[in-house]
Amino acid sequence: MTAHGAAQHSGTQPLLHQKGHELQPFGTVKQLPIGLSQDTRMYACQRLNRILADTQMLYALYKKHHWLMRGATFYQLHLLLDKHAGEQLTIVDGIAERVQSLGGVAVGDPRHAAEITGVPRPPDGVEEVPAMLSRLLEAHETVLIEARDAATRVAELGDDGTNDFIVSEVIRTGEAQVWFLAEHLVDTPLVRV
Ligand SMILES: [Fe+2]
């Protein structure tokens, strides 16, 4: 037996280049015994996936602007935007896992998320600092409007877990981040009145 053949039969050779069919299509939910109807779980997953796509874009915008930041307050904004990005990434994971716990399929690939999101694509280059901050605030508002409506609707359908997650994580974190960002757009003197 050749050295190559020996490796294949030793039980240590990974079975590479495997292809398979899609097990569960996007937009479907499987049955799970959590006391919520198929329709409710389907609706909640659809709303969550939109918020998930928007939050993935918000996260990416934060990282982009963290990298592209400039000017006298570079250091402060560079760090703040990265902190917010980290918090949004935690929310991305939480939303995706909420979709899975409802039996759905979370939006994963960023190209798929880009098809679903309502957050506009920024220019590939660098904008003025206030324009970058405004763009982040607008993305936040897109998420917050969507999240508040979704939270109300899923609560009406009895999905308190999804309602709680959206309110406690998406809305509360988003509102606090908007506050911290918006204060950087107040034109106030630092030294002399
Ligand atoms: Fe960084």
From TrEMBL:
Family to which the UniProt record says this protein belongs: Belongs to the Dps family.
Name of this chain's protein: DNA starvation/stationary phase protection protein
Entry-linked InterPro entries: DPS_DNA-bd (IPR002177), DPS_DNA-bd_CS (IPR023188), Ferritin-like (IPR012347), Ferritin-like_SF (IPR009078), Ferritin_DPS_dom (IPR008331)
Protein's organism: Streptomyces sannanensis
Record domain Ferritin/DPS: where: 46-190
Any Pfam family matching the protein: Ferritin
Origin superkingdom: Bacteria
